[in-house]
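sorry to bug you again but im stuck and you know this stuff better than me. what follows is a protein written twice so to speak, once as letters and once as C-alpha cells for the fold. id like you to explain what the C-alpha cell line says about the fold, in plain words if possible. anything you notice is useful, everything is just below.
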Amino acid sequence: GPYRQRGSRIIGFVDPERVDVNYVPSDLFVGHGFDLARMRLVASGTQPSLEPLIVHWAGTGRQRLWVAEQYLALRFNTSLKEGICSSDAAAAAAASPPQVPQARRFASRARAARCC
C-alpha cells in the first residue's frame, strides 16, 4: 500500500511517522559529533527527545560503546555494567548458556542471550 497506509490481513504495519522501530541517528542527523542531544536522543532546551523503540548505532564506529553507555546513563539512569538483572541472576545466566534443542537450531548462536 501507499506510504503510511500499508495494510495486510496477516501482518500489522506501524506508521513510520509515529513509531521509528529501527532508529539510526547517523542516517538522520549527519554531523552529530556523537552528541546525544544533536542525535535527538536526549532533551535539550525546549527540544524534546525522540523515544525510539530500538537505537541502531550504525555509523558510530569506535565510539559505539561510549555513546551507547552515555545514552543508557542519561535516558535510563543505568549502564551496560549494571545491566537489568541482579548480580546473582546474571552470574547464573553466564554460567549456564541457554539450551537450544538440536531440531530448532538456526545459524550460529552468536546472538543467543538470556537474562532473569
Q: What stands out?
A: The radius of gyration is 18 Å. DSSP finds three helices and two strands in the chain.
